[in-house]
Amino acid sequence: MVQKSKPPTAANEPERRGEPKRRGRPRAYEPDVALGKALDLFRRQGFAATSLDDLSEATGMNRPSLYGAFGDKRELYIKSYQRYREDARASMAAIFREEMPLRQRLERIFASALNIYLSGETGPRGCFTVVTAASEAVGDPDIRAMVLDGLAELDKAFANCFRRAKEKGELPESADPAVLAQLASATVHSIAIRSRARVSRKDLEAIVKGAIDVMAGVRP
Q: If you average pLDDT over every residue of the chain, what do you get?
């Protein structure tokens, strides 16, 4: 008896001419969105207190998917910190770049910083650099290099502001842009820590006003 040949199955059916070869399942997540979720979690809880299960739940990705997209937990943390710095830089770039009086520029910079530090669905999240990355920098040279680069970048941006203000006569000849820049950066770091401790915005704005009076001169 001659057996009838079975029709080819999906597994062994030859690929039809002109049809693209099917790949595996498409990604059920958006990497950029998932990275933002991881960033929020690391910023709120820090590196050590954030588990892979926490990250999986926050991003909606299982562990193999997390590893495939971002690497291990440390790599995901570093990518999150890089994303934070990029976002913070973008939010303040125009304020540092545009022409305006020194006092107005400082007021806008610190107001923008407060908006960032006081944001968060479950409470103020503060600054990623000050609250979590600075702690990890103690034992991780790569993160330490990123933190130092971020601090230097902020100092340089402020120094350029004070240098331009001095050239326009808004500051006395004795003013040192580099020293004023470090004072401005220290004020940013101070309000970042205090915001995380849930100091009120009103009190933080009072600190900012006092610092600006020192740096730009008290209004007559």
A: 86
